[in-house]
Specification:
single chain; mainly alpha; Four Helix Bundle (Hemerythrin (Met), subunit A); about 0% strand
């Protein structure tokens, strides 16, 4: 399946969902800042769920566009990086600034590599490790948001957050290295 022609309409269901996810990402960050954590969890889960839906829809109904190939990963990065940065400002959050910085750095690096490879006509599709990274990051954010709703969180919830965060950080680093290695292996 190829991209639709550049002249075709970019305003389709997958791209509309990506725009909606972008708006939800902004709302999530505002809700975290206002300490409305339960509504933030709901908005975040809707945004994360529609990420899967827009990709499925684009492939199923052959609505993959150049705009969508840029917009979808961009919005993913806004959702994850925005929520992590916002959580750094919340007292007692398990998300430390260095963690958010590492995630943002990885996303900037991968975006730069994607632009370079696709600018040369190559394919830079998401890899399985990158998809698992996104799942772990989403799990960490949801777990931390839920934990922060309690004055004294149950210990199992705290350790769940720690586990998700460790998985997210490890997969962030490993998937970033995977993309770097793929680029270094390709002949220039």
């Amino acid at each position: 399946m190829g991209l639709t022609s550049p002249s075709s309409n970019n305003w389709n269901v997958p791209n509309a969902l990506s725009v909606a996810r972008f708006l939800l990402a902004v709302v999530v960050c505002i809700l975290i800042e206002w300490r409305l954590l339960f509504p933030a969890v709901i908005c975040f889960l809707i945004a994360a769920g529609t990420d899967w839906i827009d990709g499925w829809w684009a492939r199923r109904f052959q609505q993959v566009t150049k705009l969508g190939r840029i917009l979808d990963p961009f919005v993913d990065k806004v959702i994850i990086c925005g929520a992590m940065i916002a959580l750094c400002a919340v007292p007692n959050s398990a998300i430390a600034p260095w963690m958010a910085t590492l995630v943002v750095a990885r996303e900037l690096l991968v975006t730069s590599l994607r632009g370079m490879v696709e600018g040369q006509g190559g394919d830079f599709s998401a890899k399985q490790l990158g998809k698992w990274k996104m799942v772990a990051q989403c799990g960490a954010i949801v777990s931390v948001l839920i934990e922060l709703q309690y004055a004294t969180a149950p210990s199992w919830l705290h350790w769940s957050s720690v586990g998700w965060i460790i998985a997210a950080i490890l997969l962030t680093v490993l998937s970033g290295l995977e993309y770097v290695m793929l680029v270094l292996k390709k002949p220039q």
